[in-house]
Amino acid sequence: MKKNLLKYIFVTISILSILIIYLSIFGLETDRLNSIIKNKINQLDKNIEVELKKIRLTLNPLNFKVNAKTISPNVFYKKKIVKLEYIQTQISLISLIKNQIVSSKLKISTKPISLKDLIAFARVVSKKSELFILETAIKNGQVVADVELNFDETGKIKNDYEIKAILKDGKLKLLNNFNFEKINFLLNINNKIFDLKSVNFVKNNSKFSSENIKITKDKKHFFIEGNIKNEDTILNNELLKFLNIDFQSKGFFNTNFNSNSRFSFSIDKRLKVTNLVLDSNIQVNESEYKIPNFLNNYLEIKDSTIKLKNHKIKYNIANNKLKIDGSGKIKIQKNFDDFKYNIDLKDKDFILNSQLKVGELKLISQEYLKKFTPNLKDITTLKDQTIDINFNKKELLVKGKGKIKFSNEFEDIVFRVSKVKNKFDFNTQLNLNETLLKIDFLNFEKNPKLKSQIKILGSYDAKDSLYFKNLSIIDNDNKLIIKNIFLDQDNFIEKLDEANLEFFDNQNRKNNIILKKVKENEYQITGLSFNAEKLIDNLLTSKKDKDSKFFKNDFKLNLDLNEVYLDSVNIINNLKGKLDIENNEIYAANIFGDFDNENNLKFTINTNNSGEKITTLFSSRAKPLVNRYKFIKGFEDSDEGYLDFYSLKKNGVSNSKLIIDNFKVKEIPVLAKLLALASLQGIADLLTGEGIRFSDFEMNFTNKNKLMTIQELYAIGPAISILIEGYIQEDNIISLRGTLVPATTINRSIASIPLLGDLLIGKKVGEGVFGVSFKVKGPPKKLQTTVNPIKTLTPRFITRTLEKIKKD
């Protein structure tokens, strides 16, 4: 009996074991549980319907549960369908025995389905607005998902649910500039956490990847954090625009870079990004920067772009503020140079701090500098410069130190330039050795043997003027200091406070003068000595063009100078007077000074109400004024000689009279040629030897534009007398005609006649006065001269001679 009982128990256990093994491995199929699974799914939404096939049951003997699984079911919701791979649930073995079936877990696995269809199905199930936006944004992608739900004793879903999904080849378009394609990732969803791993996507043909991106959901926002990498990416700013960072507006384009970044941000239901934090290590392989338009006037840059290469950048965004620390290579013109920088960007504020070490940089030479550096080339070159550049929304600051080449040699320079809106402030120091520095109207030129220091402090307003607060040129022998000078856009002087000039000019004469503003548009020049030789040359040969103008406004000038050099010999003492300047011309003048106790010089200009300008010049010594004319060489006046000039000008036409008394000339080339052609060789030899003396010279002439018309030029002397008329068209043609008679003939003829008629015909046949008539005509450098003997002098010549004799 006992053996049979043991045998029975053994058989029973064996059968149960085999049954358990069979049910655990193979299970059995039934449709009895279809309603249970449907009810579980129906707990999610009463409108969800499930189409099930037979369910396979497998035993889980360790936890006394039965696994129920159905293959290839379909889920319907308001005509939307999702095809599943399987649905599986767990049923307590006890509840199954009691026929009170209770499920504790539900697993759902989908087949590969369209992401767009899945979102469309989700939209039907849930009316949330973000799902509509998401359905509109999704353009492509295949999803496989596994869903695992746990239920409590009452049948409610617990919060420990888990969803696993794989997305392949997704395409997302959010707004106009947030587009991604070829999206692939592994997704784990647990309660309110979305965990993405092995993320890959393409943005504008550039590949991005991420090891992990985590999304946490609260009531109103999604918080997203993770990392992202990219290689050889072309940045076209669409992503940055979406993040409210318009990088291209700062001037950058064609940017190729690699990066490794960690980020976090919040995004709301309307897909608005807030609280962005981004830490990146970026390798910029290459990039281009379009320089601001105002720099095109100063930098010689092809296509107005600057190139960047091999830049290592630390990039941080936090609290709507961008910070960039970088270093690498930069090519402004020909070669790549070292460049390091720091950029801060917040809202519309842009701050740049940088340092550039440049081997060579070419600047466009400014036109107004050529007035002072005649050998200035069109391009000024900087070399071995360390340049600090700081820029923000309101100000650009550039500081530099190195070498500069204006012409042929490099010189030392230290400079500082700042820009606020359209105003530039500058502070520059130059140490010049070889560069030519010239101030023409002062007859000053830098001594190439002396090292000169130039300091320039001022500002430039593109809409207003150029202002020098302090401009100085200092070396061992010279000191030129100008304070508070304003130049307009045409480089005319608007106003000037003070100029202190102590220098040796090109003729090695010491100049020591001070110019000061005494009140608005009125200045005073005082000093110990001033060489006016160059200034007088310019006044006598000045032309009415832009280059001869210096001042924008009308002004008054008071003179009080101890010594003024007219030339190397003649000095005016105690030169005093006043000048009124209108439209860069002398409107009124009254200047006087002394050569010595007996000889003086006086110059006046008066303009009356009818517009007539009357100019007078009297000098007890004619030589310092006449010697400036190139066609007269070796001019000498006697102690009694003088120069007297009178001119009346109206409507652009001047009528003038010039008188020179008691002088001698050693060479007048045209006159020497006339004498030689007339066979008056003795007088010609005298002209080129000791010189010819004239007791009187008088010329009446008119000027209009570039035409001088000589009504009469008459000169008489012991050796020769001459009468000329004609015209001179400046730089074009000369046309003169006249009469030349040796003084011996005139004296003999006048002495031998009691009456004027005898002078004209002589006392005997064949006897009478003789001389030559002549013509000079042609371009200034190719004059043609003709001479004809004459037997009878013209009445005009005789009249002028008799007037002179009678006067004497």
Q: In short, what is this structure?
A:
By secondary structure, the protein is mainly β. The chain contains 13 helices and 45 strands. Helix 4 packs antiparallel against helix 5 and helix 9 (669-677) runs antiparallel to helix 10 (681-688).
Q: Can you count the beta strands?
A: 45
The poorly predicted ranges are: 747-769
What would you call the structural class?
A: mainly beta
Average pLDDT taken over every residue: 77
Q: Quick one: overall form? A: rod-shaped
- As a percent range, the share of helical residues equals 10-25%
Give a description of the structure:
By secondary structure, the protein is mainly beta. Among the domains are: 88 residues; 143 residues, no CATH class. The protein has 13 helices and 45 strands. It has a 43-stranded mixed sheet that branches. The chain has a two-stranded antiparallel ribbon with strand order 25-26. α9 runs antiparallel to α10.
